[in-house]
Amino acid sequence: MSTVNAIRDQLRRPLRDLRISVTDQCNFRCTYCMPAEIFGPNFQFMKKEERLTFEEMEQLVRCFARLGVVKVRLTGGEPLLRKDLHLFIERLSKIEQIEDVALTTNGVLLTKYAKLLKTSGLRRVNVSLDAIDDDVFNTINGRAIGVSHILKGIESARNAGLEAKVNMVVKRGMNEEQILPMAAHFKKEGICLRYIEFMDVGNTNEWNPSSVVTKKEILAELSQHFKLTPLKAAYYGEVANRYRYADSNTEVGFIPSVSESFCSNCTRARISAEGKLYTCLFATDGFDLRALLRKGVSDEDLIEIISRIWGKRTDRYSDLRKLSAKKQKKKIEMHYIGG
Ligand code: SAM
Ligand code: SF4
Ligand code: SF4
Fold this sequence. Notes:
This protein is α/β, with parallel strands linked by helices and about 350 residues long.
């Protein structure tokens, strides 16, 4: 357990988690995240030199660790598209205060990399899978990759000794009929499935409140078929509401980001692939850390700057969403900042 006293923001929330988007590119075109009409062949992604190098990211993590961060999650875009990601994981795992390095992936490249990721020090993977039916899955992901390919990836991850969970975004009209089949499949496999409420991240997914299938609705549907026992939060800031199937050891969870927002104990900072620091998923502006890194900033100065930013933090977008019908103008995109 880390002995660092985490810095706190204006709402007394400690800095505990860091999410790093290692690339803005992806091999899927999920309709709600990177719709193919917008992210077509001519879309300009970041150039290689615009992205932070592993050395730069490592320096950041070292500084964040001294401010209280104990968990790092790598995301994207699709993080496994970043060449030699395992070498970065290896470096992160050696940072003393970092207790946990995890990865969020669409699973396409998991079979190829699972063993290497495990030996590099990765502990856990969250695999995103929004349907167990091939037609529904292909309509969502925009690529001709079937469900069995992702299931093999999950199996490879488990065989390699990684803890694997599955995340399913539920959007009305997109995949709500997959709620039960997904539960049945992953219960049988003994894998924790978490249902994520569809959020109004970014500017391209045409979110509206009626497209959100709430935790309450999903729980009501599951409860008609399974007996579920609620579990207590395992740690401060846990975003998932966990349940256990009464007749097995398998858990099922909900991430009710919209209907039961959890800003009051949000301990997460985010860094985009080009090195901007965001203190909320719904932020409009980030702080350019890359400019400082490329001028050779010292760890001490970085720590001072990050503490100042976190110290001023007041973000609680999801709590406020319910109170204000006003639409925020421009937000960052999900593939840019990661989930
Ligand atoms: N490509 C990787 C993947 O899909 O796991 C990592 C990046 S992706 C942006 C991270 C997670 O964000 C995925 O589980 C995805 O389903 C979720 N996500 C994307 N847009 C979302 C939205 N509008 N609401 C809720 N979750 C969303
Ligand atoms: Fe890619 Fe993940 Fe976004 Fe789907 S959700 S388009 S896999 S970044
Ligand atoms: Fe954290 Fe912002 Fe999400 Fe609230 S809306 S939980 S502050 S990331």
